[in-house]
Amino acid sequence: MRRILISASLLLAGFAAQAGAMPEYKLVISNHTYQPAELKVPAGVKFKLLVENRDATPEEFESTEFNREKIVMPHSSVHIYVGPLSAGRYKFFGDFHQDTAQGALVVE
Amino acid sequence: MLAIALLVFREVLEAALIVTIVCAATRGVPRRGLYVTGGLALGVTGALLVALFAGALADAFSGVGQEVFNAAVLLAAVLMIGWHVLWMSSHGRQLASEMKALGGAVQTGSSSLTMLLLVVALAVLREGSEVVLFLYGMVAGGAGGVVGGLALGIVGGVAVGFALYFGLLRIPLRHFFAATNALLVLLAAGLASSAARYLVQANLLPALNDQLWDSSWLLSNGSLPGQTLHILIGYDAHPSGIMLVFYLSVVLLLVAGMRVIGKPPKPRTAVLNVAESGL
User: Which residue in B87, B118, B133, B210 has a CA-CA distance of 20 to 30 Å to B98?
Assistant: First the structure.
């Protein structure tokens, strides 16, 4: 059991180490909208998505198309690891303001 | 108000489906209502606390505290459900016959009640904290109809839970615990795969192929049936490899465990046979 735990933690450390070299992209939530509303990202690459919420209210960054969800507190930022995705268009939205907070990743 | 009701409904539905299945699985357990109520109260309190400390939680573990917390809550629920399923496989037969004999009242020990309390609390805590943050934002943003939306959403979600519950009660007693056990296994497997998704999002686990397949043309994750099946059986329109690994591991472990533990005692007593044939 201990051996499993050790190898698991080594595996995890290995993945954490990879994170340093990962490309980063940024989205800003302002007035319950995403800026940019379309974000171009490369296909076949895992990347780090920074989401900054400039509003005074919490938002939940969510995509059912690339399976991510994370609460973004007011005036704060979060990061999410996404992909690698194959080429295409993947919508995301703000779960708490779905009428305005809509956007898409354009993977190419 | 409708937008508020809709979001609350979706979150309440998720918790209600989980609560419904564990309620059905603990059918006939005395003092069950007390434990469900306790679990609900614990869950609501927890949800408020989680929402209150959401900022600190988000910053924990180098910014992936939210994912780690969600995965931990989900995996704790998986453990509780798994334990109960295995426990039931050694006592289920006896339980069904006792229920028949005693008109529904049986003593099942503490296993069921602890499971019930904790799983209800964890489900409510997870979905509830989202509702709290959402409502806080709505109130802070000056939106109208918050109370009405909240009430409508809760009533709608709970109503679906009750409908499912009474639907499950129609399963003949002979097959009842086998059916609820199967539901619990799939529920636990789905929760485990959700935990894997959070850990991939936090880059703590490899995705092992980010999109194993895409069945969103048939049933998308965003649709209500897709979301319902997601909770009930862990359906995902485009799961990652690791999600499938978690899902299948839980199913295989529990099914194998049930087989091993649930082997019928060799010289079956005549009394039991009579009781069973009476079902």
Answer: B118
What is the Cα–Cα distance from A81 to B206, expressed in whole angstroms? Answer: 11
Complex ipTM value? 0.84
User: Could you tell me if residue A78 is inside a domain?
Assistant: yes
Domain membership of residue B80 as a residue range: 12-129+161-277
A13 is a domain residue: no
- Measured CA to CA, the distance from residue B154 to residue B156 in angstroms comes to 5
In this complex, is the C-beta atom of A68 within 8 Å of any C-beta atom belonging to chain B?
yes
Q: What is the CATH number of the domain that holds A74?
A: 2.60.40.420
Model confidence pLDDT, tens digit, residues A16-60? 545 557 899 999 999 999 999 999 999 999 999 999 999 999 999
Asked if the structure places residue A14 within a domain, the reply is: no
> Measured between beta carbons, which residues in chain B are less than 8 angstroms from residue A20?
none
Q: A with B: how many residue pairs have Cβ under 8 Å apart?
A: 87
Can you give the pTM of this predicted structure? Answer: 0.87
User: What would the pLDDT profile of B37-81 be if each residue is shown by its tens digit?
Assistant: 999 999 999 999 999 999 999 999 889 999 999 999 999 999 999
A81 closest CB neighbour out of B66, B201, B220: B201
Q: Please return the burial class of B42, using the count of CB atoms within 10 Å of its CB with bins 0-12, 13-18 and 19+.
A: middle
Q: What is the DSSP letter of A66?
A: T
Q: What's the domain count of chain A? A: 1
Instruction: State whether residue A76 sits within 8 Å of chain B by CB.
Output: yes
Show the tokens assigned to B150. 């909240």
